[in-house]
Amino acid sequence: MPSLAITRAANAAWNPTYTPVGVFVGGTSGIGQGIVEAFARHTKGNAHILIVGRNRAAATAILDRLPKPPASTNTPEPTREFLHCDLSLIANAKRTAASIAIRFPRVNVVFLTAGEISLKGLDVGDEGVDRQMSALYYSKWAFIDELLPCLRAAVAAGEDARVAAVHTAGRGGPIDLDDLGLMKAMGGGIAGVRKLLPQMASYQDLMAEVGSSAVLRVVHYARYLLFPTFIFRAMSIADCGEYQLYALLQARPGASRAGGGGGDIGMGGEGDANWGEEQRLLWAHSEKVVSAVVV
């Protein structure tokens, strides 16, 4: 884990010659708020920032206090916008991402922090998947998939193209191929949650690994807010944002995983002889589920 001073210095050295576009899904508090504020701070306000979530009041308060570029800048005033989106439905994610793609042909940063694991139990919506799984996984998948052309366009223009999905990186376990979509785990009470936690980490790992085939930098990041009371005693939102931005900017090409302090923790699948097959089958399952939702 790099020191906070090293992290801040590295982030301050980031100086894009273009106005980057950042899409922050779940950026209205905690981790999401920290990365939004760090992104705005280190671009000196010269960035288009879109917060996607459900809490308009919280997002508006964050956006209103972000720095703006110096008055002498000749570029148009950057976008500061909140987009309401309930990620418990994949269709909502697809619509919102598609609307962003129309307005911003190039997107440079997609940061996904939405979704928490709860004890609510199985709740299957009209799309045929558990609503919690939609917010935790399928809607994130849909956002990345819909914005891939914009991310590829950024790469083609010589700009950054970076994606981060925040969850329990480094805590994964084998995928249950008889329960793709985790319906059984979601309906299994406490015992199901015990199975759910390590599998959800691996779902995110596999999404990052295969998604990186688009020549992007894709980071699966360890989620600080899984145990919020302990973490907030240990680190402020501002410092957490610095470490998140550092992990995003320092990520190597392709897929990687970062720990809570921004350091690379290596990729998943070690010791799992079925990792490649799990990756292939989960990818096919995810494509089928997301593509079946027509908007």
Automatic annotation (TrEMBL):
What SUPFAM superfamilies does the database record attribute to this sequence?
A: NAD(P)-binding Rossmann-fold domains (SSF51735)
Molecular function GO labels: oxidoreductase activity
What's the domain of life for this entry? Eukaryota
**UniProt KW keywords:** Oxidoreductase
InterPro entries attached to this UniProt entry = NAD(P)-bd_dom_sf, Sec_Metab_Biosynth_Oxidored
Ribosomal protein found in the keyword field: no
What is this protein identified as?
Answer: NAD(P)-binding protein
Question: Which organism is this entry from?
Answer: Mycena metata
